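Example for tutorial group B:
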C-alpha cells in the first residue's frame, strides 16, 4: 500500500509538468489521482466523500462572488491601477501589492487576497514571463502571511484549534508570535523578487494574458474548475493519510521540515491536522509549519492562492514550476539554516 502511494505521489509531481494533456486538465488529473490514492489506501467512506463535496463550497462561493464583483468594477479598478502606477512606478506598485495582499491575507483570507492579486496583475498588462513570476512570488508571500491568524487559511485554523489547550494555550496571535521572524522576511523577499524582476523587464514588449472584463461563462467555468481542484485535494489528502501516519509524524524536526515538501502537491491543512499536536515541542511545530507553508508555493496544487491565480491567469503547471521550484527550494534552504541557528 505505502509503495503504491509513493508511486502516486511521484506521478502527481512529474506528470503535470511533463504531459501537456495533464497540465491542461490538471483538475481532472488530480481528481483521478485522488480517487486512486483513496483506493490504494482503502480510505473510502461516506464522511470523506461528504468532505470532498462540501469543503470546496466556501472557496468556490468566494471565487464566484468575487468574480462577479470584479467583473462589474473592471473599468473603475483599471483606472485606479493606472493612476497609481503613474504615481508610484511599476516596481513600487508591484512590491506594495505583494506586501499588502500577503499581510492582509491573515485577515481577509488567502482566497480573497489571491483574488485581489490577480485582478491587479491582470490590469498591469505585464509581459507574460513577468506576469507569471510576479504571481508565483506573490503567492509565496500570501501563503506565508495567511498563517499568522486562524482567519487566514484552514492550516492556521486547525493548528490553533489543536494547540488551544495545555501546554500551549494557543490564542488568536499564537502563530504570529511564534512565526513572525520567518514570515515577515519571507514576505519582504517575495516582494523584492517580484519588484526586481518587474524593474528588469519593465521596458519589454508584451501583453496581458487577459483582455477586458471576463464574460459570465468564464467566471462560472473558473469557479467549477476551482471546485473540482479543491475536491481533488481533499481526496488526495485523505488517501495519503496512511503514509503520513506511518512516516511523516514519526520524524525529528529536521526531517519533518523537509518531508513537508510534499505540501507542494498535498493540502497543507490536511498535513497540519495529521502532524500538529500538543505533544510536539515548539521547535517541531515551527519546523513542520514552515516546511508546509514554504513548500505550498512550489507547485500549483500546493495552496489555494496558487490554484486561484493560475486558473484566472491561465498559468500552466510547467510555467509555475519553472519559477516555483527554484524559488521554493532556495527559500526552504535559507529558512532551514535559520531554524538550525535558532535551535542549535
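The residue assignment follows.
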Amino acid at each position: 500500500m505505502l509503495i503504491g502511494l509513493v508511486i502516486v505521489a511521484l506521478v502527481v509531481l512529474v506528470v503535470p509538468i511533463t504531459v501537456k494533456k495533464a497540465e491542461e486538465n490538471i483538475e481532472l488529473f488530480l481528481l483521478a489521482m485522488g480517487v486512486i490514492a483513496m483506493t490504494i489506501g482503502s480510505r473510502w467512506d461516506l464522511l470523506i466523500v461528504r468532505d470532498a463535496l462540501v469543503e470546496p463550497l466556501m472557496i468556490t462561493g468566494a471565487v464566484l462572488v468575487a468574480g462577479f464583483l470584479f467583473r462589474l468594477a473592471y473599468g473603475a479598478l483599471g483606472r485606479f491601477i493606472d493612476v497609481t502606477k503613474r504615481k508610484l512606478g511599476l516596481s513600487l506598485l508591484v512590491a506594495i501589492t505583494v506586501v499588502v495582499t500577503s499581510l492582509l491575507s491573515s485577515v481577509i483570507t488567502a482566497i480573497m487576497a489571491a483574488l485581489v492579486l490577480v485582478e491587479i496583475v491582470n490590469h498591469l498588462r505585464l509581459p507574460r514571463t513577468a506576469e507569471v513570476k510576479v504571481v508565483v512570488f506573490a503567492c509565496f508571500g500570501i501563503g506565508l502571511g495567511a498563517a499568522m491568524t486562524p482567519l487566514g487559511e484552514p492550516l492556521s485554523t486547525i493548528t490553533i484549534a489543536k494547540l488551544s489547550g495545555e501546554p500551549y494555550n494557543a490564542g488568536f496571535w499564537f502563530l504570529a508570535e511564534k512565526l513572525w521572524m520567518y514570515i515577515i522576511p519571507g514576505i519582504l523577499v517575495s516582494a523584492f523578487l517580484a519588484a526586481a524582476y518587474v524593474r528588469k523587464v519593465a521596458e519589454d514588449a508584451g501583453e496581458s494574458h487577459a483582455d477586458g472584463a471576463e464574460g459570465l461563462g468564464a467566471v462560472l467555468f473558473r469557479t467549477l474548475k476551482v471546485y473540482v481542484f479543491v475536491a481533488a485535494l481533499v481526496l488526495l489528502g485523505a488517501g495519503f493519510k496512511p503514509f503520513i501516519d506511518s512516516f511523516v509524524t514519526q520524524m525529528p524536526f529536521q526531517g519533518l521540515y523537509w518531508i513537508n515538501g510534499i505540501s507542494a502537491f498535498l493540502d497543507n491543512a490536511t498535513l497540519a491536522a495529521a502532524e500538529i499536536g500538543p505533544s510536539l515541542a515548539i521547535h517541531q511545530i515551527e519546523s513542520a509549519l514552515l516546511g508546509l507553508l514554504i513548500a505550498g508555493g512550489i507547485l500549483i496544487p500546493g495552496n489555494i492562492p496558487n490554484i486561484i491565480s493560475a486558473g484566472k491567469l491561465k498559468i500552466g503547471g510547467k510555467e509555475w514550476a519553472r519559477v516555483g521550484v527554484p524559488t521554493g527550494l532556495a527559500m526552504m534552504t535559507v529558512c532551514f539554516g535559520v531554524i538550525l541557528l535558532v535551535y542549535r
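Residues 2-342 form one domain. Compare this with the pattern of hydrophobic and polar residues in the output above.
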